[in-house]
Amino acid sequence: MKAGFYDTLIRQTEALLADEDDLIAAMANFSALINDNLADLNWAGFYIVKNGRLVLGPFQGKVACTRIEFGKGVCGTAAALNTTQRVADVHQFDGHIACDAASNSEIVVPVRQNGQVIAVLDIDSPLLNRFDEDDQVGIELLVKQFENCLFG
Fold first, then answer.
1. Which residues form the domain of 112?
2. Is the overall model pTM greater than 0.85, yes or no?
């Protein structure tokens, strides 16, 4: 069931970003696509690597943390390790940064250009254990499609 859902979103991503070459515009529309289509979210957006740290980029949701150091919180850990972080209960994640007290679970996927992390896609939910393995696979494929559209 979820595979078909994510396949549809991948096709929508391709159509949405087919002729877009501006990273900020693409991030803005992509975060809106995620926020509009995934249920039970309270935040979806990007942190962009600038000067060795993560800086808030386009997003959908409440006011967010502006800067995150590599290795700090779920986003900084994903960026530092260059791996997806899927957290069932953010309150159990050592060093979690609580930008929104309503967030209970989170998934963060690195965005890469030529293998280098240039940003992370951060998605939060007020539900515990919102993201399962199928969601992780689907969201990673969505990010791969995002990368392919923007960077070839």
1. 2-151
2. yes
Q: Which CATH number covers residue 92? A: 3.30.450.40
Domain tally, the chain: 1
Q: What is the pLDDT of residues 52-94, one digit of tens each?
A: 999 999 999 999 999 999 999 999 999 999 999 999 999 998 8
Distance CA 7, CA 16 (A): 14
* Residue 2 to residue 24: CA distance in whole angstroms: 28
Q: How far apart are the first and last CA of the chain?
A: 29
Give a three-class secondary structure readout of the chain: CHHHHHHHHHHHHHHHHCCCCCHHHHHHHHHHHHHHHCCCCCEEEEEEEECCEEEEEEEEECCCCCEEECCCHHHHHHHHHCCCEEECCHHHCCCCCCCCCCCCEEEEEEEEECCEEEEEEEEEECCCCCCCHHHHHHHHHHHHHHHHHHHC
What band does 3 get if pLDDT is binned at 50, 70 and 90? confident
Q: Enumerate residues 6+ apart whose C-beta is below 8 A from 36.
A: none
Is residue 1 predicted with pLDDT exceeding 70? no
